[in-house]
Amino acid sequence: MTQWQPPRLRLFEDAHRRATWLELLYDLVFVVAVAELADVLPRSLPAFVGLFVPIWWAWLGYVFYANRFDTDDVSHRLLALPQILAVAAMAASVSDIDQRSGLFAIAYVVVRVLLIVAYVRAGRHVPEARPLTTRYAVGFAVAVLIWLASLAVEPPQRYAFWAVALAIDLVTPLLTRRAQGKLPPQSEHLPERFGLFVVIVLGEVVAAVVLGLKGHDVTPGTLLIALAGVAIAMGFWWLYFGHTDESVVLRTRLAGQVWVYSHLPLSLGLVAFGIGIEHAITHPSSSSWSVGLPAAVVLAVLGLQHLCSSDRRAGAIRLGVAALTLATSALPVAAALPLIILYAAAQVAYDLFRPSRSAPHDPRGPVPPAAGRCRMTARDLFDRQLAAIADRDLEALLGQYHDDATVVRFDRVARGPAEIRDLFAAYLSAEPTVDEIVSVRTTDDVIFYSALMTIAGNRVTTYGTLVIRDGRIWRQTAAAAPLT
């Protein structure tokens, strides 16, 4: 560890990157926070959701900052460690939120102010990140002011202020899509961080089973319910971690952001499922809504995540099973749980034995495993280009290019953002579709490609070269010839 150093952009480093010890320590306090939130759910679903969102958002804020700017030096630690203490104060407040709402609000403000300071500091030292850090700092600061204003009123009016502030917090990243496109998150690090949080909430399922058995006579019936709950949680684990798609993170406009935000209902559903199993252990003759509804939410979110990765068949299966699980919720616990296990097992079997997903032919051979993708390579940039074309996403395309970029085609030359915008707006209106990647050759700063495409209903062979500077396209040539 270097003792003192300014923030730096981590996106283009060659070193293999995993979660740091500080990040793991940061996650530890959220284990406690999630456990405290789980105790709120049986008393009030709105309170559970309303308190879960700011705690999850506090975690997410640090994750995205560290993904881009983490240096793990003394200054970074001094901004992160107080956040851990503040989150601990938030966790200590949720069990009696009406009496401790002021403490919860102040603790959340501390977390966000420290994050704002970190972004301001990053913007000062990393000029290319300034458009992103400035927008984040301003949006988050407005939300902080509303949280502080909420202290002037008492609950329940205070909670209305919180809702407005959280809406601003959640919307701010959605309003900075173009700046995010120029500084996409690191694709290897981010799925690992989200996976660690999923492990935390899955641990709450196991904890709920233990608490349910601890507070109830252990009979064959209750033991079978507990084992069924753990088995279903293992199924969720398998389905989630069997599909940790790094490429979706780089699709920064729609698919990537849907993937990120979908982890909120996923986490809510997993925690609620654990509490539902605890309820089923103590009330085995009741209906299964407390178990089936959260399970349906989890499966629906997993289906949505598959759709974000363009895996439509698996996404449709997940969504269909989610609807089936919801219908199963009307059955008694003894009938519903075996069926839900069967649904989960069938999906796992499908994932294991289905043919590999088809992909455009790439003569280079298979893409290297995740361990080799520790930074945004030229191939990553090319994949983002293909994803933006597939999504008809003009802003994502423009975010790939330098402000002084030039695109050369036989029919025209486009220089600078305005001309390139006009060029690609016309291009996307022709509904281009990549049918096959015939050839791709890359170096650190050059991509040469050939592809079969359909443009304006016509099949063509396209050729082009992309010259990369600082992780974005600086020069491009492109040509197309009709298929003969």
Question: Could you characterize what this model shows?
Answer:
- The protein is α+β, with helices and mostly antiparallel strands and 484 residues long.
- It has three domains: 1-183, no CATH class; 186-355, I/LWEQ domain; 377-482, Nuclear Transport Factor 2, Chain: A (Roll), CATH 3.10.450.
- 62% of the residues lie in helices and 11% in strands.
- The chain is built from 17 helices and six strands.
- The protein has helices at 21-40, 45-69, 74-93, 97-125, 130-149, 157-171, 177-182, 189-214, 220-241, 255-261, 263-282, 289-308, 312-328, 333-353, 378-390, 394-398, 416-429, and strands at 401-409, 413-415, 433-442, 446-455, 458-469, 472-482.
- The protein has a six-stranded mixed beta sheet, covered by helices on one side.
- Strand 5 and strand 6 (472-482) form a beta hairpin.
- It is globular, with a radius of gyration of 24 Å.
| Alpha plus pi helix count | 17
Major β-sheet profile: 6 strands, mixed
| Mean pLDDT over all positions | 87
What is the percent of helical residues?
55-70%
- The gross shape turns out to be globular
- β-strand percent reads 5-15%
Cα distance, first to last residue? 60 Å
Structural class: alpha+beta
Rg, rounded, reads: 24 Å
Strand order, biggest sheet? 2-1-6-5-4-3
Low-confidence runs (pLDDT<50, min 5 residues)?
357-374
Number of domains: 3
- Topology pattern, helix = H, strand = E: HHHHHHHHHHHHHHHHEEHEEEE
Question: Main attributes?
Answer:
17 helices, globular, 3 domains, 484 residues, alpha+beta, six-stranded mixed β-sheet, I/LWEQ domain, Nuclear Transport Factor 2, Chain: A
